[in-house]
Design brief:
mainly beta; Lipocalin; 8-stranded antiparallel beta barrel; 2 helices; about 10% helix; elongated
Length: about 190
Amino acid sequence: MRFPFLPIFAAASLLAGATQAQAADYAIDPTHTFVTFEISHFGTSTNRGRFDKKEGTLQFDRAAKSGKVEVTVDIASVNTGTPAFNKHLLSSDIFDASKFTTAKFVSDKFSFEGDKVSEVSGTLTLMDKTSPVTLKATNFNCYNHPRLKREVCGGDFETTLDRSQFGLNYGLDWGFPKNVRLVIQVEAVKQ
């Protein structure tokens, strides 16, 4: 069961650039950025997965409390740890990855509590359907990376999506829930 998590992590990376006095460009660090999803399995256990390939950019101005973010996720990079489940997620039953190869999150609206990003709102496009999405920050920080010698900003973000908005209806008539929890850990490096 696929879910639009990829664009959401993009929003998270947008939030990551919140420490500059002037607008700055950031690139998502794919080795410290993870987009994961969770959905109940018949009310007994939780199915979890992630997308391993993602890329994106961020422009952020902390003083003006503004920014823009675009994040793209490769649907074929879904990874649940179980090859048979991955194959089913990629099939026409769920993500139809041969037809819909990416998901994309785009945002230009950041909300703050003080100097910290509290949420990022934008749109998620998945399976050729676009819907509004808001990611809430559960953690946010910026620091000077000791090895890169550049500023890195990031945090943990999450939202709950109604997968049926994107045409992801597999299993609804069997009792699988519509809601999918999306958790995004993101870090972005100042360019």
